[in-house]
Design a protein that fits this description.
alpha/beta; Rossmann fold; two-stranded antiparallel ribbon; globular
């Protein structure tokens, strides 16, 4: 959910400098509202979608290592941490958004999380430095990033056996070419957005 993410292509650049908010739904920081930079393309996953996703994941979050590939507002990574994920790595290319992410982590005293200001595709193109139990993949819409991101996660060893992978994509992207050992276990639509959970099977 980083900058230029999940946004209609004709949206104008926001120059207001205003801030929005995300809300933590459940867990140790339940009800906390945290500021989000109001940047072009930054649109956090809605509470409606987020609540459904984390209901799906309710029994699988505690004790997991998480990777948020296009973090943006940090809504997904922070929700996982609030629900007692062991740790999280948040990737975000925009410097301003990354700085706000770190500020929000400091606010809730999340010492078990790390923000990396980087291009996610370049970062994932290297051999994995760590393997993850739970990965959020919510790239910019209509940029052709989702499928190659998933291939990099698999090819370069970022996923543990039986890892769960959350995908969020535009509805018109119907035919996905994903690693053959990923099995779809949850699938739902909300307006023009499709969101899904896959599980990686060991090869």
């Amino acid at each position: 959910m980083g900058t230029n993410q999940r946004l209609r292509s004709k949206q104008k650049v926001n120059t207001s400098g205003k801030q929005g908010q995300i809300r933590i739904i459940a867990g140790q920081w339940r009800g906390r509202k945290l500021p989000v930079k109001d940047l072009e393309g930054l649109r956090p996953t809605t509470d409606r979608v987020k609540e459904t996703v984390f209901n799906w994941l309710a029994m699988d979050i505690r004790g997991t290592t998480c990777l948020d590939c296009f973090s943006g507002s940090g809504s997904l990574g922070l929700e996982a941490l609030s629900r007692y994920a062991t740790s999280a790595v948040l990737l975000e290319r925009d410097k301003s958004a990354a700085k706000q992410l770190q500020t929000n982590l400091d606010t809730v005293k999340a010492s078990n999380a790390k923000v990396i200001c980087t291009d996610s595709m370049s970062y994932l193109a290297q051999t994995a430095q760590q393997k993850f139990d739970l990965v959020f993949v919510d790239p910019p819409f209509r940029k052709g990033l989702l499928e190659p991101c998933c291939q990099l996660l698999e090819t370069n060893g970022w996923l543990k056996d039986n890892a769960l992978i959350y995908l969020e994509r535009e509805k018109e992207l119907e035919q996905l070419t994903l690693p053959t050992n990923w099995g779809l276990i949850k699938d739902k639509a909300a307006g023009q957005v499709i969101y899904q959970i896959y599980q990686r099977q060991p090869k």
